[in-house]
């Protein structure tokens, strides 16, 4: 397949941007496989003489990354599950059910998108303290769900609005209630949007630093971003360990995004076009 001159121009514009984005990650990965002496050498961009995979084993053991990853996985699973349980039914109700004040409820969720979490962190902390949820994964999960629900509801409503009303009317004629219409008719059709919501919420939760920093105190309940900061602060002079720990932190996110990239793009595109 030949490449047109226009395609070459686009590639020429994208190549520098791609290099700027990818180069730091490549440098970080190669540095994580070097010895401490090689990292401090005069040419920091040189390739390692020998791949030091032991750096990852040492960082994994010293930093306690097994426990940190376990906490992060439980955190992500809780947030994703609750967001699906909240956003999918709420999106259906706001898209297909008629009741007084429906538009104002939807505008309330849209307004929630405009409020940064930093602006409400003090009352949020007070609420979690009153409920006894500070320093617990349950508390940070609920805080992250409340922060992500407005976008999730907006995304699901945008998709459900596009589903023809004839489908729900036909299901009602057959005797289906709203729950059956949602689970048997709308949910199978909305899988691209659901997958996009899962990926977005999983990535943002995995990388979230601010809310876990506020809610989680004890090291045994901290998530991976917090654990990485603690690990770096205690090994600040051991660059090979710091680089290896950083790669351990972001590598699962990159793998997830690469594997789910097409479904992620399809879900956002369909939600945008049909909204």
Secondary structure: helix percent: over 70%
So what's the overall shape? globular
| Residue fraction in strands | under 5%
N-to-C span = 35 Å
Structural class: mainly alpha
Task: Give the radius of gyration.
Answer: 23 Å
Kindly report the name of the CATH homologous superfamily of one domain: MetI-like
H/E element order: HHHHHHHHHHHHH
What does it look like?
This protein is an all-alpha fold and 275 residues long. 77% of the residues lie in helices and 0% in strands. The two termini are 35 Å apart.
Keywords, separated by commas or semicolons:
mainly alpha; MetI-like fold; 77% helix; disordered C terminus; 275 residues; 13 helices
Short structural summary:
The protein has 275 residues and is an all-alpha fold. The protein has 13 helices and no strands.
